[in-house]
Write a structure and sequence with these properties.
It is built from 8 helices and 4 strands; from the N terminus they run H-H-H-H-E-H-E-E-H-E-H-H. The protein is of the alpha/beta class. Strands 1-4-3-2 form a 4-stranded mixed β-sheet. Helix 6 (about 115-125) links the parallel strand 3 and strand 4.
Length: about 160
């Protein structure tokens, strides 16, 4: 395992959701059932909610990939048409480009990453690779590439306030 990798169990311990003993018990159960994901076992054995598992997965993924600075990304204007404005804003996703190996590189906010992954993998025929972008920066890029006159800075500020409330 790479040194950038953090296990979901460790994240759940850090969050106070599970104890080290519980993570050990889940790991033992996983050895007996290798095809059952850690999160599913945590739900079954210790009533951890699927939302908590999802948030831990997002933390794990973000820890592994880091935050992408969109100013450093090459954006192929041709790939922007794979989704429409409503979808870009609803799921906070920005298609960036096709990689030489054929995957679509997509930026998404950490806040909506799980929904973005679900939407894009169901929407696209090609495999998508996701990078987490700063939400404010992503919205700035969405404003530029998927302009919506009704989405004003005031509305975005109110949305940010509501999200932090």
């Amino acid at each position: 395992m790479s040194e950038n990798t953090i296990q979901i169990g460790q994240i759940l311990i850090q969050q106070g959701v599970l104890s080290e003993q519980q993570v050990f018990e889940i790991s033992q159960a996983q050895k007996k059932n290798p095809n059952v994901p850690f999160g599913v076992l945590a739900e079954r054995l210790f009533d951890v909610t699927s939302q908590t598992i999802e948030q831990a997965w997002i933390e794990q993924y973000h820890h592994f990939t880091g935050t992408t600075d969109l100013r450093d990304q090459e954006i192929d204007e041709r790939v922007l048409s794979v989704i429409n404005r409503r979808q870009a804003w609803q799921f906070e996703v920005l298609p960036l480009r096709y990689e030489p190996t054929g995957e679509l590189l997509v930026a998404a906010s950490k806040h909506r990453l799980a929904r973005a992954v679900s939407f894009m993998t169901n929407q696209m025929e090609s495999t998508c690779l996701f990078r987490v972008a700063n939400r404010t920066q992503l919205r700035d890029f969405l404003s530029r590439h998927y302009p919506m006159s009704e989405v004003t800075e005031e509305i975005l500020c109110r949305a940010r306030e509501m999200a932090h409330a």
